[in-house]
What we know:
The structure is a single chain. This protein starts with 15 loop residues before the first helix and ends with a helix. The mean pLDDT is 83. By secondary structure, it is mainly alpha-helical. The chain has two domains: 1-139, no CATH class; 164-230, no CATH class. It contains nine helices and no strands. The longest helix has 31 residues, at 62-92.
Amino acid sequence: MIQKYSSFTYKAGNSFVHKMPAWIKILIIPILSVFFFNAPYYISLTLFFAQMILSFSIKFTLREQISDLKLVLYFGLLLYSVNFFATAASEFFDENNAQNLIQVLHTSFQTCLKNTATALMLLKLLCVLQTSSIIFKTSTSLELREGIGKIESAIRRIFHLKDKNTISHIFALILCFIPMIFHVWNQAVYAWKGRHGKTSLRMYLTLFPVLFSVSMKNAFDTAKAVAIRS
């Protein structure tokens, strides 16, 4: 069965977060991001679970939440893997170290577990990505574009600039391309697996060019459509 959900794509709902004006949600991203990266770990952890509870309350499943957060999970796995192998290689080839391979691997594993700085950074990244996920999943592309336009219009009025939005169009397109890329990738993966393809290195080598070409075409068509309507 083909899944209909793609990461960071809008999911219809009637919650208070869906009804919140898009420009308010857009302003929340940078404010909370700065707060998350400067807050102690226990505050970040508390807010992470608070956002998870909020996601459940507005009918987002655990699978959908994990799908949006898997980028950080993969990044964390990569960081810990590099740290583990680098520590193991350093310990194993140290002439003053008399440990055997099993002892070296055990020591390296313990060292990775004690690396609290990496864990804290990943926790903060999870909080930021979780915030972005909630905003993208509760706001349509049109709402995001109009919200960014309202923010730029307000800034132009405050500083007495020309009453013509230019930056908001570019920024809105960038925001809209994020869910579009995930949607294109999911479609390519479903097509690959529908032809009995397996998840492997070959799949990524085959699908990444497809992702690039289709995304570029969609981006061009979207930009052309916006230019015609401007």
